[in-house]
Each structure stands twice: as structure tokens, then as C-alpha cells.
């Protein structure tokens, strides 16, 4: 795309139309830009438009956003997630070079909004090219930074610093490698000194402004923001290890850091939250820097420590009282927590300090605030994510408790005593006026729950703060038994959370007496409360006694099962809980545990298909949808296995929904739909109903297999058909179609195991007379893969397939069919692939199959294979049967899985409850070790002295000893 007036006019009009409130011109403009973006130099043309001062600011801003997104998609494009999507054309190297030569100067000349977009675009380039493929960037930024600070143009200074901050962020989150350390050294060599210079220059400007008493708020704001950015860059450059330059200049940094924690800036702080937020942003960045030094360079940092602890402490006492200073409060408490767990914990030893911490820092931060109540009511998902799922480490409430835990590592008894007293005081205040002081009770419950200690490797928790049963009885039970499920919802949520957390410690009789009350709370109008009630029931059903036996059984649930299921489905009719995954997970768990009568089954399948029909319109919540399909699968499994007459009723309810999934191309649900269909096919008795045969026809079409995420579920469904309707394969060339699918799957390392699943099911379910015409085709496909790209996984699957073939159709058919493709290839395959890979087999069914097949191979091949090969087969069998898995299985090189691409649309998700039962093709053999020894004993009785010699010449010494031991165990001998 050439830059000329016509291009400028075309792009200007397109970007103007993208801002239109009318959908039609907006769509046309977006399509035109998408087409234009395929042309070379498109990004450069858009950048020229952004630089054109005569073009309207709004159009240029829209162009800057488009330019940034264009670079994200095409600077270094990843392969598309879906195989049938076209790959994006990357930006050419000459265009990249021109963009890199223009972008820095253009960014610095632009208005703030355009500047921020170009800064992000520059960071996109930097992510791929900086520093190795863009060595001129940092020197150019440093030169501009120097001239801009001299000119006191701090809006542009901050633009440069923000860009450098983005470029250096990788040093915070990437693993330490030699390559990363080389990049870090380059950045330190080129920017450590300029960073300190700009930091000190800005220090002087701030000090002068404050000292003169006439500080301009706007100027001071950009200076403070500049220092915050310098602090973030400092954090990145120091994150991996302390560089020598920073160690040499530590005083210069630390003196200023302390000043920013102690000095007030009234012109900003006293004129509204915006100014205070800017200053607190700098203080929070300082707290992160000193926290980093405390963690990584404690010895060097020690001389500054007491001054910083005092400064942070004083700041916290003030900021804890303000609801708008969360970020600062959290980072400050994190710093004190780091100190409390270090060798300097004695700073917190004194009783009066602990008293101050609990009263002035912990309690004010744990106490509910208006914004907590607002989040509870307006965004229940985020509230639960923070509160119940433990992702609230960066909130005041949780981090305040983490500080207590940190101090408690060294002063447990003191912390327990102080916090227990605070809990008692909170409950006392609540009892004086429950309606007005309910937040104090919530605070008490939160402290007990958050400070509880989880036992390693389990779900049990413990606490020394209170006696759990007494606290539960006096504090929690009154909330759970409250008749009004909508009164004081935050207290109810806290009580349900306590019940859930301490579920293992509470006696079954106590919990059972309260379960009907928890079921009542499913009717609460509060999304959080009915979600916590669902979660409580779901977690109770997971409690195990003695680590194995479920504490709550179907008998326990039966008395209120119908009410429970009714309330769960009703809860999903509440506003914003239509796709509440806590409720759906509870439905799944209850259906997995309860005794499902015909009435309950009918009500549940109706409820679940109604939900499924609704979410098909617009799948939004992958977690909810997964539990929905698991619920359907567990209902099918448990209800239909108990009462097979329900199968046709379930099919009547589910088929329209599953057909809607397929007809409306709801691709996210395809893998689920195929797994449910496989489950239903397997439950049917032959002959399979006609409506399934129609699905079978669709299944055999090549188009059905194009999307890789569908492959495992399609294979599962195909296997179900092959097992239930093998006679259908003889009709209309269907077996050819099935083997065509096998051929496609086997050719790729990412799907070859799925190909073997198809092949094994064919071999297992059809007679040799049916499959013999196709065996040449099958062996050619397998031999091609052996030559082109064998993996350990493929070789193991090949041994399993040949073993299955041998036990189902006999050694003679196996050998003849292979040798028909290539003369004497059978012995070569046995020698080169079967023998060395047999010992790598894992899985109890696979181990039995391959060892028995290999034993048959030895017994039936005395005229087909020479004694040395049979001896080597025996050596591998003994290794397989006598040595533990970790001794014989090699680490397998990682083969990327076709489902590894992250994202809702691209991945296969296995339904646990729709899983097929593992079939044992050798039910008549109970013990493969006994089978081996008995077979060898019988053989040796016919040919005495043959096998002892074969064993001496071919088996490792350890395997000879193992075989002798097996003979003794079964009281058999090889003569």
C-alpha cells in the first residue's frame, strides 16, 4: 500500500466510519480495513496517517489503536488456533525497519492519548525485537529522555519512561536464563546510570517546588508520576539479582525512597482523591522496591530497615482508615509481612506493637467497607473469586491476615492471644446491638476462617483461635437457622463459608441437622448466598472418613432430595445466576451421590435440557457448561444403568438439544455432544435404533474430522458404534470409510493414538474374514509411519495393536498379513520394535494383553522365529512383569497434544462421567505371570532342555533370577 493522497483519504474515511454509531457503515469500514491490512506496507501507511497533523485528532487516535492491534497480530504472527483458519501474513522486514525508524520520534510528538497507543505499539515490537534486533532503540530513548528532562517536558518524559517500563517488564516475570541475563546486562549497561540521573533531576524539581511553597499541582503531579515510573523500572532491573551499579548507589535511592514515604504533598493530597492517588502510586511502588530488597538483599538492606519499618508503619495507621488507599495499604502490609518472616522479626516482638497491629492495622482492614458491600451486591462472581477462592491476596482483608500469620511464625501464642481477644470483643459489640453492629460479627468470622491452618495434603483445617464446635454452635448456627434467608446476606455468606471450611471437623449429626437449612438458603435472593449454599452442599458430599468412605451417602440425602434439586434449578432462575457454575457443580455432585428415582430423573433431565437449550444460544461460561454436561452424563450413567427403561425417555429429551448443537454449529459443544451420544449408544442393546445410524453416517464424513478438538470425542463415538453395531460396517462400504479415518489419524504424531483406538476397536469387534481384505492397507499405513516419524508413543501403541491382533485372530494371520506387504517383515518388526518396546508398556490391561500375546508368540513360533529372537522376546516379557514401572519406562519426549492450544473453542474437554469402561480382551487370563510360567512349563515338557538353554543364552542375569523366582512362586518348573 503506497502512501499518497488517495490512501490518506481512504484510510481517513474508514477510521471515521469505524466510529459511527450505525452498525452498517461501521461493519463496512472494518471489512475494508481488514482487507487492506493484507497488503504490504499497510502498517506504515496507517502510521503516516497518525503522523498527519491536518487529520482530525479522533481519526488519528482510532488509527493509532488499529496500528497497535495490527502490530500485535502481524509483527510475529502465531500459527492459527484452528487448522482451517488461514495464517496471517507477517509484516515484511523492510516495512518493519521503516516503522522502527519512525515510531519513537512520532510518539514523542503526539498528543497524550495517541502517545499512549504508540507507546504500547512500541512495546509490542520490543517484545519480539528488543534488544537484539533493535539495538538503536535504547540509545535513542536515552538521548530523547535527556533532552526532554532538560526542557522540563515531563509529559513526554513520562511517555518515554512508560515505554521503557513496558520493555523491561519481562525481567520481572520471565525465568532466569542466560539469554535473559544477557538482555538484562545490556539494559543495565545502557540505562542504569541514565535512570538514576533522571530520578535525581526530578528529585530536585520536586524539592524546589515544595520548598518554594508555590508548588503547581499539575507540574508536581507529572514529577511524582515520573518518579513512580522510575521506581517501576528500578524494580524490573533489580528483580533477578542486585546489580553492582545499584549496590554502589544504594544510599542515593534509599534516602529518596524514605522521603516519599514520610513527606506529605498537601497541594496534591488535600485537593481530592486524584492527587492523593498519584502520590500513593509512588509510595506503593517504593514499598514494592523495599520489599524486593528485603527479600533478596536482606544483609545490604539491614541498615535502612528500621527507618523504613517506622515510615511504613506510620503510613499504614493513616491509610488503613481510608477506603480509597487500597493499593498502598496492600503493598505496605506486604512489606511488613516480609519483615515479620525474616531474621528481623524481633521488631514485632513487643506486646504493645502486636496490640497496635491488631487494633490499628488488622481490624480496620478486615472490617467490611462500603465498597465490599457494593461488590457483594453488584458483582458476585468477583466477590466469590476474592473471598472464597483465595484469589484475594491483593486485598486488604486477606493481606492483613497474612501479616498476622507472618508474625505468628515466631510469636504464635502471642498472636493467638491478641486475635482471640479481638474476636471476643467483636462478638461482644455485635451482641450489644446485632442490627447495627453485624459487621463486627462478620469480622470475627472472617478472622477465624482466614487464619485457619490447612493440613498438608488434605482439605482439613484447624484453628487455635476458637473451639470450632462451640464457635459453630454459638456464632454460626443462629445465622444458618435464621428464618429470613435474605436478612443480613453478608453474615449468612460468612456463616456458610465457615461451615464449608470446617466441614471435616464438624460431627455428622451436627451437619445433618443443618443441611435442610443450607438447602433453604438456595432460595436466597443474594447470588453470593445461594452460591455459597450450593458450594457448601457440594463440598460436604466430598468429605471422606478414613480417607476413602464417603461420610454423606444417598440415604442421608434422600429425605430432602426433591426439595434440594428443585431449589438448585430454581436458583438458576435468579437474575445473574442463570449460568452460576457453583450451582451446576452442586447438581453434578448430588446426582453422583444420590439414589435417583424415576421421578427425580425425569425432573432433572427436563431441567438440564432446558438449561442446555438456553446456553446453546450463546455459550459464555466454559466452567458452567462443563459442569452442565457432566451433570447430564452422570444422570444418564446412574439413572439408566439402574433403570434401562429410562434410556428412550432420556433420548427423547436430549436428542433435540444435541441436534440443535450440531445443526446450529455450536462448535464449543461438539466434543461434549459426541461424548454424550457415545454414552447413549453404549447403553443401548443391539440393534441400535435408526436415529443413531443417521448419526453414524455423519460421523463417517471426512468434514466431521477437520476440527482437531473434536477428534477424541468422535473416536469415542465411533468406538461405541463399532462395538454395538459391527454388522453395520459390512454395508455400503462403511468399513473403508472407518479405515480412511484411521489412516488420517495415524499419519500425524498428535493423533496417532486416536488412530490406534479406532483400529483396535475394528480388530476386536470384527471377524478376520471381514477385515482380511483391508489388512494390506492397514500395514502399509503403519509401516509408512514407522519410516517417517516414529515416536515412543507410536511404538508402544504398535506393540499393543499387534498383541491384540495376535490374541484375537492368531499368530498365523498376523504373520501372513504382514509378510504379504513385505517379505519376511514380520521377524524384522518383532526383533527391532516388539522386543525393545515391550518393556515400556504401562497400564494394567495393556500390560496383561502384551505379556500374554508375547507369551503366545514364543509358544507358537518355534518354526517361525529363531531361538535367539524368541529368547529376546522372553527377556522383555520378564522385564515387563518383574520390574517396577519407574525402572523400565524411559522418559518420553514431549509430543505436543493437538488440544494444547488454549481457548474455549479449540480444546477437547473429557467428560469424566461419560468415560467408557476399559474393556479387557483377555478376561479368561487372571494372572499374566502365572500364564507365562505355565506356558513355558508346558512347552518345556514337550521339548526338554530346549528352554533352559534358551534362557541361559538370551536372558539377563537379573531376569533369569526373576524367572526362577516366578517358577517357585507357582510351583512350576522349566525342564
UniProtKB/TrEMBL annotation:
Q: Which domain of life is it from?
A: Eukaryota
The answer, when asked if Nucleus is one of the entry's keywords, is yes
Q: Which GO terms describe its cellular component?
A: cytosol; nuclear envelope
What InterPro entries does the record point to? ARM-like, ARM-type_fold, Importin-beta_N, XPO2_C, XPO2_central
Query: What keywords would UniProt list here?
Result: Cytoplasm, Nucleus, Protein transport, Transport
**A GO term for molecular function:** nuclear export signal receptor activity
Q: Where is the Importin N-terminal domain?
A: 29-109
SMART domains the record matches = IBN_N
Indicate where this protein is primarily found: cytoplasm
Q: Where in the cell is it found?
A: Cytoplasm; Nucleus
Question: What span is annotated as the signal peptide, if there is one?
Answer: none
GO biological process annotations for this chain's record? protein export from nucleus; protein import into nucleus
> Hey, which family's this protein in?
Belongs to the XPO2/CSE1 family.
User: Under which name does UniProt file this protein?
Assistant: Importin N-terminal domain-containing protein
What organism is listed for this UniProt entry? Anisodus acutangulus
> The organism's lineage?
Eukaryota, Viridiplantae, Streptophyta, Embryophyta, Tracheophyta
